[in-house]
Amino acid sequence: MRSEDGRRADAPPVLLAPLSGVTDLHMRRIAQRLGASAVVSEMVAAAELARGDAESQVRAEGEGVEPHVVQLAGCAETPMAEAARIAVDNGADAIDINMGCPAKTVTGGEAGSALMRDLDHAARLLGAVRMAVAVPVTVKMRLGWDHASLNAPELARRAEDLGLNGVTVHGRTRQQFYKGRADWSAIRAVVAATRLPVIANGDVTSLDDARACLAASGAAGVMVGRAAVGRPWLVGEIAAGLAGRSVTPLSAEARAAAAAEHYEGLIALYGQAMGVRHARKHLAAYADAAGSGALSPADRRRLVTTSDPTEALALLRRAFLDPAGLEPDAAGTTIGEAA
Ligand SMILES: Cc1cc2nc3c(=O)[nH]c(=O)nc-3n(C[C@H](O)[C@H](O)[C@H](O)COP(=O)(O)O)c2cc1C
């Protein structure tokens, strides 16, 4: 449906995916301010949050993010319910439950995607969290454990019966980890199985991908993960494009400012020593997003290894803006439809 100004009134939401060790508070804040429909915290181990672990509290932090969605990972009902209550008491507007993580450290504890091997157990966890909090509860899953057990439709049906509010499906099985291509069309079986809104995820890196993913899956919206690392503005650009708005990509100056805000935010959040370490992967990704050749290999190395924030900020700025302060892409290009 289009409104009088030609924009879609029912534009599909575009979310920033939870990425452990990556989607910290500041990345989420920036992505949201630049137009992401919603952002999800990195996974928080429920048992650790329930016992008051300080690092888990930082991961679940959401000041200035709205809606503030906290993702919980775990395999036992009591800590999952307790962690959900704590997150909501601390301001979470919604809880997402991780049933997609393939990492052995998580599945070995029977959490994450391991829960797709035992849907009765998965359903007990969903029910426990549903009963514990009054805010919306969603679940993020894969297509199944392997191709012999593509049970995401069944898990989505159970989520609906238990009163959950939505599901996200990464179009790979657990056994695929991140190999091959996400199968967007396989998500269609989940859409057919439930009346809950389904968000499709996996390998969406552009507006064209988002359109193709929605067309193949029939999903209500898309979630973007790895492609947004170093480019937190991408999520909002895709959202605007799907809404039919013309989008002028952020100027190099604005991208440099966002990257600097992220870096400074991490140092404020974690303190200088730990903040600098947390920032390394982001700095590398921002340098890559700025374009090849923006920094010499030696300067790029220096950017990601220096523990001197002043030096890092100067190099970060140079990565986006040439030394004369000219914007490499001053001409700008537009994505999305003309308004
Ligand atoms: C480094 C990394 C960390 C991730 N952490 C989480 C997590 O905490 N919770 C979760 O549900 N999925 C996690 N995922 C999976 C992503 O949310 C997403 O489903 C996956 O990367 C596919 O989407 P993409 O192709 O857009 O990245 C992680 C993926 C990566 C690469």
TrEMBL record:
CDD domains reported in the protein's UniProt record: DUS_like_FMN
Top-level taxon in the UniProt lineage: Bacteria
EC numbers on record: 1.3.1.-
Record-linked SUPFAM superfamilies: FMN-linked oxidoreductases
UniProt key word Flavoprotein: yes
Swiss-Prot/TrEMBL cofactor(s): FMN
Gene3D superfamilies xref list: Aldolase class I, Putative flavin oxidoreducatase, domain 2
Enzyme class: oxidoreductase
InterPro entries: Aldolase_TIM, DUS-like_FMN-bd, DUS_fam, DusB-like, tRNA-dHydroUridine_Synthase_C, tRNA_hU_synthase_CS
Catalytic activity: a 5,6-dihydrouridine in tRNA + NAD(+) = a uridine in tRNA + NADH + H(+); a 5,6-dihydrouridine in tRNA + NADP(+) = a uridine in tRNA + NADPH + H(+)
Ranges where the DUS-like FMN-binding domain occurs: 15-320
Keyword tRNA processing part of the UniProt annotation: yes
Keywords carried by this UniProt record: Flavoprotein, FMN, NADP, Oxidoreductase, RNA-binding, tRNA processing, tRNA-binding
Role this protein plays: Catalyzes the synthesis of 5,6-dihydrouridine (D), a modified base found in the D-loop of most tRNAs, via the reduction of the C5-C6 double bond in target uridines.
Family to which this protein belongs: Belongs to the dus family.
Record protein name field: tRNA-dihydrouridine synthase
Organism expressing this protein natively: Methylorubrum suomiense
